[in-house]
Write a structure and sequence with these properties.
Blueprint lengths: L5 E2 L3 E5 L5 E7 L2 E2 L9 E4 L2 H11 L5 E11 L2 E9 L6 H18 L7 E5 L10 H6 L4 E10 L2 E12 L2 E6 L2 E6 L3 E6 L4
Parallel strand pairs: 7-8
Antiparallel strand pairs: 1-2, 2-3, 3-4, 5-6, 6-7, 9-10, 9-13, 10-11, 11-12
Helix pairs in contact: 1-2
């Protein structure tokens, strides 16, 4: 564990440098993401930020699933990194990436002001970030939320049928909806049990 680690009931908090703080949750012997209410603004990470993160994560043997930057999160800003690997992610994997990445972010300084760093498994409701993600999970059930409503509808929960050019195709109750990728605010897999 990195220096400055404080371990509480089911939460491990890391203080990594003067501007970064990371949170890892370990519940019932499993890495878990916890639901939260967020009223800030999620921004797509810049190409430069994604490249910085990718250059740390991938050489460590992990897949970079995605990068989110949320402003106004609990009174501050949050940089959330999703990582994965073939046999899954545990708290030690998140701690290792968090520790390595925090040093690089302190040097590169790609974001203004203070922010918290969170390194996480994508979870069962894996977020989908780009066309490669959508292509990989064709046939699976997805939840999609758009930036603005189309025909009075903003949320779609159905089967992902495919990707065509800059659109994904989602079947909801027998009807196929083409949704432009640049209008998607958030897309996640629906967990299968």
């Amino acid at each position: 564990m990195p220096d400055g680690t404080t371990v509480g009931n089911s939460k491990t908090e890391f203080f990594l440098g003067p501007r970064l703080r990371g949170f890892l949750l370990w519940v019932d012997q499993e890495w878990a993401s916890c639901p939260f209410f967020y009223l800030g603004d999620m921004q797509k990470a810049s190409a430069k930020l994604q490249e910085i993160v990718r250059n740390v994560v991938e050489p460590m043997g992990y897949e970079l699933v995605g990068v989110e930057y949320l402003t106004g999160y609990q009174g501050g800003n949050l940089l959330r990194i999703y990582i994965d690997k073939e046999n899954g992610i545990d708290v030690d994997d998140c701690a290792a990436v968090s520790h390595q990445l925090s040093g690089v972010l302190d040097v590169e300084d790609p974001l203004p002001g203070q922010y918290s760093l969170e390194v996480s498994s994508p979870g069962l409701d894996r977020p989908l970030f780009d066309s490669a993600d959508f292509e990989r999970f064709v046939g699976r059930k997805v939840n999609v939320r758009l930036d603005a409503s189309i025909g009075g509808r903003r949320k779609y929960k159905g089967q992902l049928l495919g990707v065509e050019d800059d659109q994904i195709l989602v079947e909801v109750d027998g009807e196929v909806y083409p949704l432009f990728m640049d209008q998607i605010q958030e897309a996640r897999l629906v967990p299968e049990f």
